[in-house]
Design a protein that fits this description.
Layout (H helix, E strand, L loop, with lengths): L35 E9 L9 E10 L5 E12 L2 E17 L2 E16 L18 E16 L3 E7 L5 E4 L5 E5 L3 E7 L1 E2 L4 E11 L6 E10 L3 E8 L3 E11 L2 E10 L9 E10 L32
Antiparallel strand pairs: 1-2, 1-17, 2-3, 3-4, 4-5, 5-6, 6-7, 7-10, 8-9, 10-12, 11-12, 12-13, 13-14, 14-15, 15-16, 16-17
Length: 312
């Protein structure tokens, strides 16, 4: 008689820098920055622990010239112990203008997932146990996602389900060795000016799951002259993080964060995360319909409208 055990662990993308680029979890984010935007991220969790999670992600998205539609895509590689998860996604979004300072973006995504579990790399009691020999792999698993993103110059609200389908990963005998559940993402943020060049920017990110525990992040950042961001994040009952973001130039930003595990999650020596964001308008035609404006504005002042929430 075989006694099966059930274990729960991290599966969804976890990042302390969620406010920098939300395309990985919300397809409606495509084109919101009003630029050809490239975002690269590396996250190394629980340093000092063998087989600790590591994540690498790359996303690209851009509006289509003179249109309200946008296209994008992302690549994700996640590894934790013997488990490796690779993901390739393509996204499409369409922008609707509610009024002169508010937009809503609607997005969909389609992607392919690949999972593998290196059973032969595990340390087992019986080296001759056939259940732990070789690799268990799933070459292809399609999935789809939907999302919406409402934003103004000072506020945003995102709702998305990046993976609508629950997926199962079975071994050769048909037994389930890995399951991936759908997650509802809720994100929101607000910008409060407290001086000529200083802003306070609180934000939240909730990952809501039915089958397993949910997680919630609360973040507070201070922005000075659209150049330096300094902040802290708290993942309820799990971790705290310190963040530093530097806008090196108009088109380049670098962000670093360090997570401190809390309570019973106090393993390893924390987690490092670094990301690079590049925004370029070199290949895009100026589209006034995608810009924020004013109720009454002279034609020659039209270009003064805020171009995007890039600095939010």
């Amino acid at each position: 008689m075989i006694n099966h055990q059930v274990f729960y662990g991290q599966d969804d993308l976890v990042t302390s820098q969620y406010m920098q680029n939300q395309l990985m979890v919300n397809p409606a984010y495509a084109g919101v920055r009003n630029s050809l935007s490239i975002h690269a991220m590396s996250r190394q969790q629980w340093l000092g622990i063998e087989g600790a999670p590591s994540t690498y992600a790359l996303s690209v998205h851009s509006p289509l010239n003179k249109r309200m539609a946008s296209l994008g895509g992302s690549i994700l590689n996640y590894q934790s112990g013997p488990l490796m998860h690779n993901q390739l996604s393509f996204v499409y979004s369409y922008l609707l203008k509610i009024n002169y300072q508010m937009f809503i973006s609607l997005g969909v995504s389609a992607g392919a997932h690949h999972h593998s579990v290196g059973l032969s790399s595990l340390t087992v009691i019986d080296n001759n146990d056939p259940s732990f020999v070789g690799e268990a792999s799933n070459n292809f698993s399609p999935n789809f996602g939907v999302g919406t993103f409402l934003y103004s110059p000072d506020f945003y609200l995102g709702v998305s389900v990046p993976q609508l389908l629950n997926s199962e990963f079975k071994d050769d005998s048909g037994g389930i060795i890995y399951q991936q559940f759908r997650t509802l993402y809720l994100s929101s943020g607000y910008s409060i000016g407290i001086g000529k060049d200083v802003y306070i920017k609180p934000s939240i990110m909730s990952r809501i799951r039915q089958e397993v525990s949910s997680s919630h992040d609360v973040n507070l950042q201070f922005l000075y002259k659209n150049m330096f961001w300094l902040g802290a994040s708290y993942r309820i009952n799990t971790a705290a993080a310190a963040l530093l973001n530097v806008q090196v130039s108009k088109n380049l930003a670098v962000c670093y964060s360090y997570d401190f595990p809390l309570g019973s999650n106090n393993v390893g020596f924390g987690s490092h995360e670094i990301s690079l964001t590049i925004d370029s308008n070199k290949f895009l035609r100026r589209n006034r319909h995608r810009m924020f404006g004013k109720k009454k504005v002279k034609k020659e002042q039209d270009d003064e409208g805020m171009r995007s929430i890039r600095q939010f």
